[in-house]
Target: Glycine dehydrogenase (decarboxylating)
Amino acid sequence: MSLFEAQSKEFQFRHIGPNESQTNDMLKTIGVSSLEELVNRTVPPAIRMEGDLKLPPAMSEAEYLNHIKEVSLKNQIYKNYIGQGYYDTITPSVILRNIFENPAWYTQYTPYQAEIAQGRLESLLNYQTVVSELTALPLANASLLDEATAAAEAMTMFFNTLNKEHHIQRPKFFVDNDTFPQTKDVVLTRAVPLGIEVVFGDYQSAQLDETYFGALVQYPNDKGSIEDYREFIKNVHDTGVFVAMATDLLALTLLVPPGELGADVALGSAQRFGVPLGYGGPHAAFFAAKEEFKRSIPGRIIGVSVDAQGNRALRMALQTREQHIKREKATSNICTAQALLANMAAMYAVYHGPEGLRRIARRVALLTQTLANALEERGYDVINEYFFDTILVKVGEVNPFRQKAERQRLNFRYYSNNLIGISLDETTTPSDLFDIINSFVNDVDPVAYEIEHEDQLDIIPAPLSRTSTFLKHPVFNKYHSETLMMRYIRTLENKDFSLVHGMIPLGSCTMKLNAASEMIPLSWTHWSKMHPFAPVEQVEGYSFIVKELSRYLCEITAFDACSLQPNSGAQGEYAGLLTIKAFHKANGEEHRDVMLIPISAHGTNPASAVMSGMKVVVVKALENGYIDIEDLKVKAEQNAANLAGIMITYPSTYGVYEETVTDITKIVHQYGGQVYMDGANMNAQVGLTAPGLIGADVCHLNLHKTFAIPHGGGGPGMGPICVKKHLAPHLPGHVTMANGAANGSPSRAGHAVSAAPYGSASILLISYAYIRMLGKDGVKMATEYAILNANYMLARLKDQYDILYTNHFGACAHEFIVDLRPFKKSAEIEAVDVAKRLMDYGFHAPTLSFPVPGTIMIEPTESEDKDELDRFCDSLLSIRREIALIEENQVDRKDNPLRNAPHTMFTVCSDEWKKPYSREMAAFPLKEIKENKFWPSVSRVNDTYGDRNLICVCPPTEEYAVQA
Model:
């Protein structure tokens, strides 16, 4: 390899952990002579890919950054006044640098292990408090995916509350005409499979009777108008109808909040709280509800509990509602959130405080009022009587105004009937009004106007002017200097375990390196400032990324078409199933509604199937974890007339390449079904095999797993779907699109699954970078090393632990399951005890009790080197010796390091120590831990206490003061 070839492939050796020497040692430990031999023993030859992937060669990091800069300049930065739920914002630099660009925040995992996640849990509790207090509703979750899907979640929550399964008495859902178009689009998509009848109309004249279960209104509405919904809400409540209100957090600092108007749910986007536009995402949606919905509210809720020492501790509350547990009984398939973006929004509120937020809102409103008056003085009709940041201007013909605005690099929103919408935001300055007004006047008379009096906002009606206070808690009234804010962020950061500290070996979750060169461009103006509904000629850079990434993903999966719209893995499942459903309908077989799902499948699979209007039939698994072919044949034949398809994961959820997978796909196709493949384990396929080769028809891809988008403490995620040619016409569309252009574009108007045409478009850059810098050889190498690392760890652990589900060579795929169930009988130790004890060794636990209760599932990924793998294996082997001491009655069965784990600095350093083992054994069980100790910030959290005493907002000020 020449010096220049080596330079182009440098990223491969940055991304992949083991070096050549380590690789040879690991192969020797496994008992094979080469990486090729290991892969041949692991991946069935019948499904192996022939030849190389048709992807570009690798680029060096420097070369890539130059390339992506050139691509970014294809995007044209205009001042965006389009609005429609997306607004430019100012991300405070202290938040941009210390959270958005900080791997200690963006490489965290979902906070299932609360003891090493107290920092982000506190930040998410702050977020919930912001949402709860601004909406005046008592219960808020820790974010959803976007405003449109949040509205759909409200609809289904209301529907399930008032209708019994298989007995729908109230089928109708009212949606006010002046709701954002993309929200109406997604609501309609979600309603049809469930048998919900969406009725659009004018809330002022609507007559809702007992056949309705819910209603949705927008506040301020799609035209920017502020409407008083009190009477409407009272009237529909009298008929038992629930009301959801889509709203705006910034506007609510000045407006009477939904809870005070009587709404049952408030929802919307927190994007304008410091989160960049990014051509549509990722952005955190908010969702708040009345207490009566606490058992059915979708998504994650952070709650206050106590730890084993009685100290206040935070954790994810009501975890039994998690959809992977409820499976087909789930009321939502939400599996992720937008945690990173919710943390940014929460910090924005902390930094500005209630008065700062009010000042921003008043500036926006004042400029909008000034603009409206200036245009009216020039003879234009502003049709809104009351408004916050958006006005609608009536003109004779739109085109001349549009041409002049675009010459000044301004984007307005153009409605039908010659109406122009103008939405101002935090970034709008008094001088910006000159350019806006200039679009409505000739070029002869000079533009002049005066800013309205700051103390007089005539555009908000007195009955809807907010009088209630909000954000009185000290956390929102203390950290307003950058010094204090920087230290607060760092204080929380120090309580959290992330990839900065060590390996996160979560099976199925693929916590690999999120390289800095992949992440850096996201902050660049030409990517971050783009509005998702900007004219297509202004977003040629994004169009290039969409087209190229779609092509790469189709090549990798051996499919023909791709939709990049789904903005989470579960959304990808849902979109894939809707695509199958639409295909059957187009063929006159709408009755095909049975989906076969193996018992080993991810819990979101059956949840997504039910949301898609399908009936779930469970297929058994064999002792070795394989799908039971005989049971599959029986179930497929029994349901042949109505078979829609099957959902499988490959390699299986048990971490094995099933040699029978092609038999499975043939059986399903034989009976007219389609094969959906869950892409959770694509990290074991890329370059070696592909869903299309195996016989699948559609597959979703977790870009936040295989393709290096970071998990962000529980989100963002992306779940594009790739399909065979016959399914391509049925991919998701979008209300803003028609006659989709490039591969990856929505194929038609309507039937969207996400608010923006390309979901969380800005983070597509990360996966594009991953493929371009690794190149065709590197992406395959990543798969091979994922297999190597997993099998090396298996080889080191198999003599001391029982390993479940290996193939006939004793090999696993990219992950494997360690059985901890025997220790419950031998030492009264359970899997959770091992998980918590690993924290004392400086590790995040592997996946706990999934897919098999009482086990841990380990996935090291290709990015960890041999030293880190050994450190983890040494820790597990040390824990095994601790269990042996219990088994041999040398350590107490009830009072031992595992049952008491994790051990905090406070407990280890306290004056009192009455444990039957030493402080050193508690905190430093291996000598090397002393060099770089990560301390859990709380002892083991009491989940039961937290659920029985549900508190999901910051504690009252007096409690905070006592603790301080």
